[in-house]
Amino acid sequence: MEKIKMTTPLVEMDGDEMTRILWKMIKDELLLPYIDLKTEYYDLGLEYRNETNDQVTIDSAEATKKYGVAVKCATITPNAARMTEYQLKEMWKSPNGTIRAALDGTVFRTPIIVKGIEPCVKNWEKPITLARHAYGDVYKNTEIKVPGAGKAELVFTAKDGTEIRETIHQFRGAGILQGIHNTDESITSFAKACFNYALDTKQDLWFATKDTISKKYDHHFKDIFQDIYEKEYEEKFKEAGIEYFYTLIDDAVARVMKAKGGFIWACKNYDGDVMSDMVSSAFGSLAMMTSVLVSPSGVYEYEAAHGTVQRHYYKHLKGEETSTNSVATIFAWSGALRKRGELDGIEELVKFADKLEKATIQTIESGKMTKDLALITSLKDVTVLNSGNFIKAVKETLESL
Ligand code: NAP
Ligand code: MG
């Protein structure tokens, strides 16, 4: 069989530990035999990031802007322990943070649904994609521990020196204070990324805040979304047969629990932090969660939602067998290849991506899976496979399709 040709390179960001091992297996077994894989390779493994003073991360983000589609392996975010383990020159920033900042992107997380791994919420038939605004609010706050009686004010000083001043509270005793902010630019980017992704995946978009209580702050988010929707997206949504739906955050939570799924739920930063953990754990497993960073200019970076699975890597280094789930990493590749195929008009590449996903799901549904899924599946007659043999089983299914 002739290999599928590509015209534009994918930006390939290699990573760390167990996921780096899976990365190579996936390429060798599931991609290279079928695709004349064209990638521009960036090694975001911690060693090379340290060697290049993290320049490689910046370069990979620039390449993503240039080509439009990237696929990323999980990477270590250094902490004190990693400083000694890898003898780092500096505690380099999280690559995901660096890339997100460079692309001004929003992260969309979607569970992969298979029969036999049922969500805890029994009416969830389709995936719920969570979009979290990744800038500002309580994550960039300023706090004061109020020692005793006094007046707290909110003051904005414009460039020309004029002031806007509001009393927050007249304290009669000790208490606490918090100042938070966001910017029109960031909220606009978030809104556009959400509208674009809804169109791209032909799913309804839900957005919720607490605008009844936060009449200026949260209401501003609602207004920006509504304004952009009416100006730029309303027509396109109608054509695509999808809906933009705004409601209060508590109403959204109640509706999500009763819904069938199949929509995108856009959340402010804090709501997204909390709700994404709820949605992902209710769907079963972090190893079955895909993640894509979408920039408002329409650049895509695909990855798995989980980390480098450090514990499994140390077992692997000791020569012990591992049963690490590669599904989300396989879907990162299929997502990126599909998008590359769509952008370049290579139908065969799109079809291959579909087939690879189908093969992965069918393999699990036939009872062949890694240990993490075997522990939670409702399927009987399960065969637990090691990391390599699971990928080989997917290859077998792929060849049978
Ligand atoms: P993790 O890699 O997500 O793994 C945490 C635990 O979840 C594992 O020990 C394992 O449980 C289970 N797990 C996660 N993915 C799995 C998979 N594919 N197959 C089977 N089990 C899986 O998180 P971590 O160990 O806390 O973090 C390790 C490193 O990843 C850190 O250095 C962190 O900075 C980095 N990280 C990177 C990203 C990213 O690049 N996007 C995201 C998060 C974390 P058991 O041990 O019980 O089997
Ligand atoms: Mg969290």
List its salient traits.
single chain; 401 residues; alpha/beta; ten-stranded mixed β-sheet; 18 strands; 44% helix; binds NADP nicotinamide-adenine-dinucleotide phosphate; binds magnesium ion
Name the hetero compounds present: NADP nicotinamide-adenine-dinucleotide phosphate, magnesium ion
Q: What's the β-strand tally?
A: 18
Beta-strand content:
15-25%
Which structural class fits the helix and strand makeup? alpha/beta
Spatially, the strands of the biggest sheet line up as: 4-2-5-16-15-6-7-14-12-13
Write the layout of secondary structure elements.
Elements: E1 4-5, E2 10-14, H1 17-31, E3 35-36, E4 39-43, H2 46-51, H3 55-67, E5 69-72, H4 80-85, H5 95-103, E6 106-111, E7 128-132, E8 142-146, E9 150-157, E10 163-171, E11 175-179, H6 184-201, E12 204-209, H7 217-240, E13 244-248, H8 249-258, E14 263-267, H9 269-282, E15 289-294, E16 300-304, H10 310-317, H11 327-344, H12 347-365, E17 368-369, H13 371-374, E18 383-384, H14 387-400
Parallel strand pairs: 1-3, 2-4, 2-5, 5-16, 7-14, 12-13, 12-14, 17-18
Antiparallel strand pairs: 6-7, 6-15, 8-11, 9-10, 15-16
Helix pairs in contact: 1-14, 3-5, 6-7, 11-12, 12-14
Magnesium ion is lined by residues 273, 277.
